[in-house]
Design goal:
The chain has 9 helices and 11 strands. The chain is an alpha/beta fold. A 9-stranded mixed sheet has the order 7-6-5-4-3-2-8-9-10, with helices on one face. It has a two-stranded antiparallel ribbon with strand order 1-11.
Length: about 325
Amino acid sequence: MTIAVFESTETAPTAAPRKFSDPHVTISGEPRAQVPFQGYQTVWFNTGTLCNIACQNCYIDSSPKNDQLAYLTRTEVGRFLDEACQIPKKPSMIGFTGGEPFMNPDIIGMLDDSLSQGFSVLVLTNAMRPMQRHRGPLQDLQTRFPGRLSLRVSLDHYEQEGHEEIRGARTWGAALEGLAWLAKHGFDVSIAGRLLWNIDEGEMRRGYQQLFSNVGLDIDATDSARLILFPEMLDDDNTPEVSEGCWKKLNLSPRQVMCASSRMVLKRKGEVSAAVVACTLIPYAKDFELGGTLEEARSTVSLNHRHCSRFCVLGKASCRVDG
């Protein structure tokens, strides 16, 4: 018996192109915006993704269970600090983020090493129990390196209800306790909130100002460097891509974007060595991994991620710290 085989002359449908799929060209065919590296102002260290709480829409999914980014060790951080010291125009700031940095068992040693080598240091923290366990060592660092250790405390809303909607029950009181302690002992403190609610930014800042007065915190809520209100970053592609033409349209320079002057060091779970990535907010995308040293990571960054658009360019927000 002979079976006839007929080949179809129809071609398989071509998958529709997706946004953020080509590092060089947008879906509309325009050259994708890129950010040339201008030199180090800040070197960030992600101390690990473990955190004492699990927030709704955490920027990098930190939680008590997420250990995708392993704890950096003091030795690993020290290698990058040594390299940073050799840069002719060395970074002015070292930043520590997480997860919750104060859960890393080496955090105090890493802060000490950074300060001892002449850097100013910024730590992003929720000011809860992990930080409060280190009150004595933090006071010691504050005494030994006056004015060079800063802490940015996450308070998602100026009222308990809004804050705990994001961070969970019983997080408000613990955060305020830590914040009040920092204020009482003269630490340089800034606050990070979120523009999640449909509230005018001016109203948000007025609400925070009342909170600062109640806590005894000397912060001017109109100062965008002391009260940083971040836009939300949703896990979808429902945001425009950024082409080269957007710089002029938005009256924005690539030099103003965080990845023009900073990089972040992290260590992926199971990896032997730490790596340097372009951005504090895109730790998992391999396309944004730039090398194993600060020198290797000086390359131009293509803004080929939804967070580049929603947060940094259209949101005009940044974790950038100018020293």
